[in-house]
Specification:
- The chain is α/β, with parallel strands linked by helices.
- The protein contains 4 helices and 4 strands, in the order βαβαβααβ.
- The strands form 2 sheets. A two-stranded parallel sheet has the order 1-2.
- The radius of gyration is 12 Å and the shape is globular.
Length: 71
């Protein structure tokens, strides 16, 4: 499991449970075949997908993106 969270404290908890940490959403996309998003609103989703080093910058052909955000 590879994770990225805008809150580094949350990342540390996940790392302690065995997860690897990615420094950007693009790094997650480059490392994973399936990516899950869980964000609170549309601007956050847009920032993670399209922002600098966003998820779209690292997507590989065939990557599955599941957006479970609470928009």
């Amino acid at each position: 499991v590879v994770v990225h969270n805008r809150s580094h404290a949350a990342e540390r908890v996940l790392a302690e449970a065995g997860a690897s940490i990615a420094t950007t959403p693009a790094a997650i996309a480059a490392a994973c075949d399936v990516v899950l998003l869980m964000l609170p609103d549309a601007p956050d989703v847009e920032a993670v997908l399209e922002g600098p080093s966003g998820l779209l910058a690292g997507l590989q052909p065939g990557t599955v993106v599941v957006d479970s955000s609470t928009i």
